[in-house]
């Protein structure tokens, strides 16, 4: 008799501002790596503090867009840049980030925090040709 396979819960936090194909690629890849996918949508305040700029699309609308994607099992409001805060609420097994975080001070902090609760950090390639930063430059100069 075989033991039942454990469900792997994945978490992918993000701003998801001006949703584009790069965002969709991250969600697709995350979906393929876990059994249950939770997508965190950071609040306007968290985003402004982290990136020093307001989102173009308000939080509630970004959350609605993410919730409408069939690949997403659950979409939640992410209230903190500290992902241990969300882990305490959601108890995910793996967290997904763009590889632009790898080797950075913030990525190193994330890896150390996730290691402390035995959560794997998986990086996906950043879609450099399509980003919210590039779209913002086109819109506002």
Give a written overview of the molecule.
- The structure is a single chain.
- By secondary structure, this protein is α/β, with parallel strands linked by helices.
- The chain has one domain (9-140): HUPs (Rossmann fold), CATH 3.40.50.620.
- It has 6 helices and 5 strands.
- It has helices at residues 21-33, 44-51, 59-67, 83-90, 105-115, 132-140, and strands at 9-14, 36-42, 74-78, 94-98, 120-124.
- It has a 5-stranded parallel sheet, with helices on both faces.
- The longest helix has 13 residues, at 21-33.
- The N and C termini lie far apart (63 Å).
- The model has no long low-confidence stretch (mean pLDDT 89).
| Distinct helical segment count | 6
Mean pLDDT: 89
> Number of folding domains?
1
Low-confidence stretches: none
What's the level 1 CATH class?
Alpha Beta
Strand arrangement, major sheet: 3-2-1-4-5
Which structural class fits the helix and strand makeup? alpha/beta
Topology diagram in text:
Blueprint lengths: L8 E6 L6 H13 L2 E7 L1 H8 L7 H9 L6 E5 L4 H8 L3 E5 L6 H11 L4 E5 L7 H9 L1
Parallel strand pairs: 1-2, 1-4, 2-3, 4-5
């Amino acid at each position: 008799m075989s033991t039942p396979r454990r469900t792997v819960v994945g978490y992918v936090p993000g701003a998801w501002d001006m949703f584009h194909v790069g965002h969709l690629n991250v969600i697709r890849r995350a979906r393929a790596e876990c059994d249950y996918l939770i997508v965190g949508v950071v609040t306007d305040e968290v985003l402004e503090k982290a990136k020093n700029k307001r989102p173009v699309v308000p939080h509630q609308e970004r959350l609605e867009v993410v919730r409408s994607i069939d690949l997403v099992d659950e979409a939640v409001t992410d209230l903190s840049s500290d992902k241990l805060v969300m882990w305490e609420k959601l108890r995910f097994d793996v967290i997904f980030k763009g590889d632009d975080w790898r080797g950075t001070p913030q990525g190193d902090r994330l890896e150390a925090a996730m290691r402390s609760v035995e959560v794997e950090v998986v990086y996906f390639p950043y879609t450099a040709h399509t980003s919210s930063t590039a779209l913002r430059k086109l819109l506002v100069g």
